[in-house]
Amino acid sequence: MAASSKIDDSLGVPVFPENGASDLRKGASLFGVSVEYGLHTLLWLVTETPKRASSRDLAEMQGVPAATLAKIMPKLEKAGIVNSSDGITGGYELAKPPGEISVLEVVDAIEGDRKLFDCKEVRRGCILFAGAPPSWSVDGVCRIHAVMLRAEKRMRSELAKTTLADLARGGRPEEFENTVADWFRDRATARETARVSALKEGRRSPR
């Protein structure tokens, strides 16, 4: 561990200073950007308005790729985290209260049962063992694997005890929530106006 890092006692993991953040971002993360998109999207559905929203509107609101979000939402629906409905007023809504949806549920729904570490039992391959590793070298769980399992258990425990309600608490101010509600209502109104206009145009079209 770098000398400039310190341990967060609440999580038991290293915390790096601000000037090292850019270096950390260069590596691949355990969970992909789809988890970030998915969690942020669900937070827009925590409030009363919008009651439900299309994946396209949710993507536009956040400035994320609509095509990517359109692949994420069905995974969340399959996991019972959101419900969907069709039609001009359709879209996605939470399938249960935000306090009953854990971050771990969302992560597993999007990423599947991804493991922190995939032990290949390298300890068996020492050339001096000539293909027959002695018992002292292979008894029990590999110590490297064991520490990774403990780390994964702690991580999943933290994700399991944190809910969408926890993430939403103390986030956006009320005046901003009102602006968000107006935006989603305007989008719904615009679609309904476009639908009605298209129907009128269809009736006027020569046959």
Descriptive overview:
This protein is mainly alpha-helical. The chain has one domain: Arc Repressor Mutant, subunit A (Orthogonal Bundle), CATH 1.10.10. It is 51% helix and 7% strand. The strands form two sheets. The chain has a two-stranded antiparallel ribbon. The chain is elongated, with a radius of gyration of 24 Å.
Low-confidence stretches: 1-24
Strand order of the largest sheet: 1-2
Number of domains: 1
- β-strand percent reads 5-15%
Q: Sheet bearing the most strands, described?
A: 2 strands, antiparallel
Total DSSP helices: 9
* CATH architecture classification name: Orthogonal Bundle
Count of strand segments: 4
CATH superfamily: Winged helix-like DNA-binding domain superfamily/Winged helix DNA-binding domain
Shape: elongated
CATH topology: Arc Repressor Mutant, subunit A
Q: Radius of gyration from the CA trace?
A: 24 Å
Distance, first to last CA: 76 Å
Task: Summarize it.
By secondary structure, the chain is mainly alpha-helical. It has nine helices and four strands, in the order ββααααββααααα. The protein has a two-stranded antiparallel ribbon. A two-stranded antiparallel sheet has the order 3-4.
